[in-house]
Specification:
- The chain is built from four helices and no strands.
- By secondary structure, the chain is mostly helical.
Length: 83
């Protein structure tokens, strides 16, 4: 599925979007339960991606990293690949 500018707007291969939601939920739980900070002694973003940074992997990264932990990565990604 593509928009009028030929940008892909689908949800990837069958079941992939659903899998990303699970991965994003696990990432969020790791942060919420302090597993990341207790293991590494600081907050580290969990970057979720595939071969390209599609809108749904960016969404999964945003949702999996509470309190803007991944904002620096996401801002850099936006500069490299503007919409």
């Amino acid at each position: 599925m593509f928009d009028e500018d030929d940008n892909y707007i689908g949800k990837g291969p069958n079941g992939f979007y659903d899998l990303l939601q699970v991965v994003s939920d696990v990432s969020k739980r790791l942060h919420d339960n302090k597993v990341i900070i207790n293991t590494f002694n600081k907050e580290i973003p969990i970057i979720i991606h595939d071969l390209e940074y599609s809108w749904y992997t960016v969404e999964a990264t945003q949702n999996g990293n509470p309190n803007g932990i991944a904002n620096i990565f996401l801002e850099a990604l936006n500069q490299e690949f503007p919409e």
